[in-house]
């Protein structure tokens, strides 16, 4: 049997090989990431690897795909379940950007700590919200839904093998190879002709909608490597003459703890596609929809930490408006971070803003308060890496790679979506990421208490 985690590792490799053949600049991105990671790890030593070993960071990827309906989302959930990737988190990108991005999203990833350590492959998956009247009138919605219903993204053999892999916890070599081949091909860029007029109609509303509902198949939109120093990566990619988006999305670089997620990308490249025109002719053209994203992951924040982060983002926006054209977002954010965020991991722990695991040492405890145990060295706090995404950053990457903002009518009513509703549509429980991080932290505390032989007071 090929166990689930090996299926996931092989799936990530196959997708990388396929995507690299379709988007050659991806290989450049991976090469630069590898160089930056090796140099950063060497320069920083153990401190530079507190959020993951060099082996994990270098191998780590996240993909992104887009589907058009609840049926397609439920099917892709079955496919990813075969690889031990479960839905985690709810992201609403519709109001996260000034551009027209009419999608809601979740991410499929491992949830067990050991499984994440073996291979943390994750896929950010967006679903088109066709019933949202801010973007689609009734006629366009009807045509969109008919177009999507008529296509088949995931065939019956693939779905049957995926279900079998879930039941067995893996597959034999022959079935594993077949599953991997079918799953990889389902995300390959299609060679089928695209209806030019229909695609253009959708693109005037949203380039994202056109990429989902204007083509006969889905595809990998980006495959994202992880880097230890995204600012260095950004500079090196520019030095190689590769056009990057205007800025890094997410928290700024500063002297305090790295939190959550920082992302950037090279700009979408023109890719040759085949179009069918109204007169019946088939001609070659190009689209700019896929780009090369890269990420730097930080510490997972608690609910209180995330609320603070969201308030700081609002403050950055306000100061940027006041500053005019004279300052960048990263510069302003750095000032705000210095004013409001703890400068040490220890203070993140004690203020209950970040998630950590706790490890007992050989030092004899002096008291039972968490603060005292950390100060004495009887307990060591180790940060939990943020495994998830930020809707505003995701929308910012999308927006930075669009040539047109599209259209939306905010006088119309939107469509209500939240985590429970998306769970119902997926047909599977969508895990709340905060609950996953909290459970990991609590488990480590209980184990530390057992080893220390006392009850740890986290409230003092």
Structural write-up:
This protein is of the alpha+beta class and about 450 residues long. It has a single domain, classed as Uncharacterised protein PF07063, DUF1338 (2,3-Dihydroxybiphenyl 1,2-Dioxygenase, domain 1, Roll). Helices cover about 45% and strands about 15% of the residues. The protein is built from 18 helices and 14 strands. It has a 5-stranded mixed beta sheet with strand order 3-4-5-2-8. A hairpin with a 5-residue loop joins strand 10 and strand 11. Helix 1 runs parallel beside helix 8, helix 2 packs across helix 11 and helix 12 packs across helix 13. The longest helix is centred in the C-terminal third of the chain and has 21 residues. The relative contact order is 0.15.
Round the mean pLDDT to the nearest integer and report it.
Answer: 91
Tell me the span between the first and last alpha carbons.
50 Å
Count the helices. How many?
18
Number of domains: 1
**Class by alpha and beta content:** alpha+beta
Please sum up the structure shown.
The chain has 18 helices and 14 strands. With 460 residues, it is α+β, with helices and mostly antiparallel strands.
Structural features:
460 residues, alpha+beta, 2,3-Dihydroxybiphenyl 1,2-Dioxygenase, domain 1, 3-stranded mixed sheet, 18 helices, 14 strands, 46% helix
Topology:
Blueprint: E1 2-3, H1 4-22, H2 25-44, H3 54-59, E2 61-67, H4 70-81, E3 86-92, E4 103-109, H5 113-118, E5 122-128, H6 138-149, H7 156-168, E6 170-171, H8 173-185, E7 194-195, H9 196-205, H10 207-213, E8 222-225, H11 230-239, E9 261-266, E10 271-276, E11 282-287, E12 292-297, H12 303-323, H13 329-340, H14 345-350, E13 356-360, H15 370-376, E14 379-383, H16 391-400, H17 419-426, H18 433-452
Parallel strand pairs: 2-5, 7-10
Antiparallel strand pairs: 1-6, 2-8, 3-4, 4-5, 9-12, 10-11, 13-14
Helix pairs in contact: 1-8, 2-11, 4-7, 7-8, 9-10, 12-13
């Amino acid at each position: 049997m090929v166990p689930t985690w090996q299926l996931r590792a092989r799936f990530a490799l196959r997708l990388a090989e396929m995507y690299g053949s379709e988007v050659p600049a991806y290989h450049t991105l991976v090469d630069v990431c590898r160089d930056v990671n090796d140099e950063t790890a060497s320069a920083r030593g153990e401190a530079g690897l507190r959020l993951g070993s060099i082996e994990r960071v270098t191998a780590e990827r996240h993909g992104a795909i887009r589907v058009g309906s609840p049926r397609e989302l439920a099917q892709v959930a079955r496919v990813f379940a075969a690889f031990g990737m479960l839905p985690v988190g709810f992201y609403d990108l519709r109001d996260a950007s000034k551009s027209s991005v009419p999608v809601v999203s979740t991410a499929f990833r491992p949830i067990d700590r050991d499984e994440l350590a073996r291979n943390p492959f994750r896929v950010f998956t967006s679903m088109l919200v066709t019933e949202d009247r801010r973007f689609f009138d009734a006629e366009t919605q009807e045509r969109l839904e008919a177009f999507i219903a008529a296509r088949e993204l995931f065939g019956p053999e693939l779905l049957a093998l995926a279900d079998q892999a879930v039941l067995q916890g893996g597959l034999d070599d022959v079935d594993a190879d077949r599953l991997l081949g079918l799953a990889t091909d389902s995300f390959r860029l299609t060679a089928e002709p695209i209806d030019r007029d229909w695609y253009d109609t959708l693109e005037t509303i949203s380039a994202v909608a056109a990429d989902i509902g204007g083509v006969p198949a889905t595809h990998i939109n980006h495959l994202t490597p992880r880097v230890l120093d995204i600012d260095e990566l950004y500079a090196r990619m520019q030095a190689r003459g590769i056009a990057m988006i205007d800025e890094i999305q997410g928290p700024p670089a500063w002297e305090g703890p790295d939190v959550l997620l920082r992302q950037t990308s090279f700009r979408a490249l023109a890719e040759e596609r085949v179009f069918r025109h109204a007169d019946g002719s088939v001609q070659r053209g190009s689209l700019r929809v896929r780009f090369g994203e890269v990420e730097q992951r930080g510490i997972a924040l608690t609910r209180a930490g995330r609320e603070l982060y969201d308030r700081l983002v609002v403050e950055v926006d306000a100061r940027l408006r006041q500053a005019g054209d004279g300052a960048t977002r990263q510069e302003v954010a750095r000032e705000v971070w210095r004013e409001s965020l703890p400068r040490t991991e220890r203070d993140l722990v004690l203020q209950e803003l970040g998630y950590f695991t706790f490890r007992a040492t050989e030092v004899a405890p002096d008291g039972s308060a968490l603060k005292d145990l950390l100060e004495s060295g009887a307990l060591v706090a180790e940060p939990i890496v943020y495994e998830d995404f930020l809707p505003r950053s995701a929308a910012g990457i999308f927006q930075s790679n669009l040539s047109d903002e599209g259209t939306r009518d905010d006088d119309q009513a939107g469509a209500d979506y939240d985590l429970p509703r998306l769970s119902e549509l997926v047909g599977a429980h969508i895990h709340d990421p905060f609950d996953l991080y909290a459970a990991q932290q609590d488990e480590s505390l209980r184990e530390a208490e057992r080893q220390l032989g006392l009850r740890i007071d986290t409230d003092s």
